[in-house]
Amino acid sequence: MRFHETHDAEKKKRLKRTAGIVLAAVLFLLAGLCVFACIYPAETWKYYFSNPKIEKRNQGELRIHFIDVGQGDCTLLELPDGRSMIIDGGNGSQKTELAVMRYLNALGIDKPDFVLLTHPDSDHAGSLDALLKHKGAKVVYLPKIEDRSINAEYAEFCARVEKSGAEKRVSHAGEVISSQSAEYPYTLLFLSPKTSDNPDCEYNAVNDGEYDETDVNDCSAVVWLDYFGVSALFTGDAGKSVEEKLLAQAALGVLKYPNAPAFELSSTEILKVAHHGSADSTGLAFFGYLNVKTAVISCGKGNAYGHPHADTLKNLERYGASVCRTDVSGSVMITVSPDGKYNVTTQKE
What we know:
The structure is a single chain. Strand 3 (84-87), helix 2 and strand 4 form a beta-alpha-beta unit. The protein folds into 2 domains: 1-39; 46-346, Ribonuclease Z/Hydroxyacylglutathione hydrolase-like (Metallo-beta-lactamase, Chain A, 4-Layer Sandwich). With 349 residues, the chain is of the alpha/beta class. Helices cover 34% and strands 19% of the residues. The protein contains 11 helices and 15 strands.
């Protein structure tokens, strides 16, 4: 009889200890949630769940993330000096907004150093309003386009920039961002649009009041990035006329800027294909001038525009470029190492 009493007493003690552990865990979880709620407003909680799994960046690596935002563009640069840049933000749908914000949180980026809107199209400006509202930015590069009524997304972006307190800069050729680390030097150079004092400035066609979609696309910031000899070109929706101007400048030897180191556009190995691979961009002459080994196309699955166009894919194939498409492979990450090599990984490998 004493055996049963002892056994029951020990069983009760175990149950009591278990209940205490469970209660402590619940209280700890509640305390954690309270702290989380104090730091992060309730409207942002959705950005911290179901985040993508992304391995930590190694010392000295530069990473380029082409985020899958459906029919739109969003590129994230993790620079080797610890800074970051967002180039465009997708179309502003709830799905896209979640994708962008969760990607940033997965990388632990609380406040991007640079935000660049290449041009006003809604499928580029869309989610930047939410990004600036909840994370802010140190510096925002924006197009010098006065008509904010081009679309609602551009108007919201411009209004949010004013509220954000970020430093505002206009995208134009010759603007340079250089590494803050002597050990890991990189150069990020704006090649287009031209400066506003140039009569051939791409902004003029839009700001003069009569313009079409091509004029707006040609205002896209075109940015060249180099890290230990690996070069990448980001093109927004710039069309063939912009490509022809860059080629003409390169041929004349005037594609150089006083505050930038010497560079060769023809060394470009990584290309963010312009305008989602449409037939209006990435002409054969331009692509033939570059040295592209990896081409990335950001577009939505089954999109209504037929992107990417068959002719663009043929041009890429003709010169032997490896093509990554977000509509096929999901988000694409390119990691550039200080040894001058890079590798490509995709979400749906």
